[in-house]
Design goal:
elongated, Fic-like fold, 388 residues, Arc Repressor Mutant, subunit A, mainly alpha, single chain, three-stranded antiparallel β-sheet
């Protein structure tokens, strides 16, 4: 006979793991990563296109945890040609999460305070105009008791939600020693899930909140910062994610430490992985050039266009003169025409308006198919995102 979910209060506070704890080891490694400024060789325009793609992966991963069945390939095709190969409501859910991530990027700075209103706005953005995964009162805390599927934890009574959320926000903004920042990311994620403050959309909002906290605590994604995909930690094994949350529900030190280690070790693995993309030689060889080859193989670009794109993919930033070798039998006007066509398709991006220096463009055209294929092959994309 299944056990009846029960509510059990526990105090929210930072953890002080013992020196020989494995949690201390992973926190130490993450602290080193946080303070290590990336001196990458990837040009800024290319870096920010990668960021957009990782936002897309983040959105898809978060939605699929909640039962969205859209595959990565379906999401890409919907962006390229507007064909809705997945239900409209499911695609809208993904777009909502992407918009919420953009809102976080524009709102959160290192050390900036975080408010309840900010969290409420994340909820509004996440559930807006949705049927299956919407909420009748976007941005408002729930007024009814809820239960969490397959969990022995009963969230607090609705009358307690506001006070628990106020406590959570105070905890997030409290000036603890910096060594606790990363532990606080994990603890805040669990506490929010434990409170379950909204009628629907709590999972999507808590993963957005974790992204915001990583930015607040110094894992920024400005140039010299990092590409982040923290939901990859959770969506690669959905059952494991829920199991680890359940371990922490009692508030025991052991359960909370296990949860924190699970989250932070996953984030560390992701950061180590995606930081490779700051090395342009790696990015060019393993991702960009293979993507051009895929586009040529699928006859999405001509042989000449592929040659131009390979040139800029290898150089990072190419001048118009760099294309003369692959356009050597063409007149200047013909070269200009070919370059302009690639600019119009978004495959060449001028460094500034009218500039004759270019980077490769791939985040909003057919090259994105090959880019995502390469990222998946290199282990940057959880395999679960393409399973139906």
């Amino acid at each position: 006979m299944a056990s009846v979910p029960t509510f059990a209060h526990y105090d929210l506070d930072v953890l002080n793991p013992t020196f020989d704890s494995s949690l201390v080891d992973v926190v130490t490694e993450l602290e080193h990563v946080r303070r290590l400024r990336l001196a990458g060789t990837t040009p800024a325009p290319v870096f920010f296109q990668l960021k957009r793609i990782f936002h897309m992966l983040e959105s898809l991963g978060s939605a699929r945890i909640e039962g969205n069945h859209t595959t990565l390939s379906e999401y890409i095709e919907s962006k390229l040609d507007g064909e809705h190969r997945a239900p409209i409501d499911e695609l809208r859910e993904l777009e909502n999460i992407e918009e919420a991530m953009a809102y976080i990027d524009g709102s959160i700075r290192v050390g900036s305070p975080l408010t309840e209103q900010f969290i409420r706005e994340l909820h509004v953005l996440a559930v807006r105009n949705l049927k299956r995964e919407g909420d009748a009162t976007p941005g408002a805390y729930r007024v009814v008791q809820v239960r969490i599927a397959k969990s022995d934890h009963l969230p607090p009574d609705p009358v307690q939600v506001s006070s628990y959320m106020q406590e959570l926000v105070r905890f997030i903004n409290e000036q603890h020693s910096a060594k606790y920042d990363l532990i606080k990311v994990a603890l805040a994620h669990h506490r929010f899930s434990w409170i379950h403050p909204f009628g629907n959309g709590n999972g999507r909002v808590v993963r957005l909140l974790s992204y915001a906290l990583l930015l607040k605590y110094g894992f920024n994604v400005s140039m010299g910062g990092r590409v982040l995909n923290p939901t990859a930690v959770f969506c690669s094994d959905r059952d494991r994610y829920y199991e680890m949350l359940s371990r922490a529900d009692t508030g025991s030190v052991r359960g909370l430490e296990s949860w924190c280690e699970y989250v932070l070790r996953g984030i560390l693995d992701e950061l180590r992985k995606v930081d490779r993309l700051a090395d342009y030689s790696y990015l060019s060889e393993k991702v960009l050039e293979p993507a051009v080859a895929v586009a040529k193989q699928r006859q999405l670009v001509t042989d000449l266009e592929a040659a131009v794109l390979r040139t800029v993919a290898r150089k990072g930033i190419a001048k118009a003169a760099d294309f003369t070798v692959v356009m050597q039998n063409m007149k200047p006007a013909q070269r200009t025409y070919q370059i302009r066509k690639l600019i119009e398709r978004g495959m060449l991006q001028p460094l500034s308006k009218g500039a004759r220096q270019y980077t490769i463009g791939f985040s909003n055209n057919v090259l994105i198919r090959g880019i995502v294929d390469a990222l998946e092959r290199e282990g940057f994309v959880p395999s679960t995102l393409n399973k139906t």
